[in-house]
Amino acid sequence: MTGVLSPLRLLRALAVVVAALVAVVLGARVPGPLPDLVLPVVVAGALLSGPSRGALLGLGAGWVVDLMPPGSPVLGSAALLYAAVGLVAGAGRREGEVAVGWLALVVFAASAVPALGRVLLGLAGSEPVNLSATAVQWVLTVGLSLVVVPLLIRAEHALVRRHLA
């Protein structure tokens, strides 16, 4: 089904909202940097659907992140950063089985986009930028994505094989 509200798109949207909600709850309770929980959902969706749909998924995910408390310092910045993540990850789309090394390279590159974007936004807005916290968050995000992205891809393939999505 390729309609606007296909079950697969609804599942991706639900995964984005749940990841954003969990990130907000954990951010309020856990001190220190946390991994980006929305990024693996965007990367997995982009790897499966290509750069243009990945950018749209990232844009939607970024809007969700922008609207969740505490929000972005500049409204819309997360939407643009996640759209770039979807574009970068979608450019790494390959037909058939994807090698682990290729997946790691795509995750590495896609995870660097929001980290660098946030640093540049902080510098442009003359806000203090904590480079060590940003580096720790990037490492945590890469580690989480290397585990979660293959699981999301397998789950989506299983749903498609069973004609559930």
Verbal overview:
Keywords: Membrane, Transmembrane, Transmembrane helix. The chain crosses the membrane at residues 74-92, 99-123, 135-153. This protein has 165 residues and is an all-alpha fold. The chain has a single domain (7-161), classed as Arp2/3 complex 21 kDa subunit ARPC3, CATH 1.10.1760.20. 74% of the residues lie in helices and 0% in strands. The protein has 6 helices and no strands. It has helices spanning 7-29, 39-49, 51-67, 77-91, 100-124, 131-161. Helix 3 packs antiparallel against helix 4 (77-91) and helix 4 packs antiparallel against helix 5 (100-124). It is globular, with a radius of gyration of 15 Å. The protein starts with 6 loop residues before the first helix and ends with a helix. The model has no long low-confidence stretch (mean pLDDT 91).
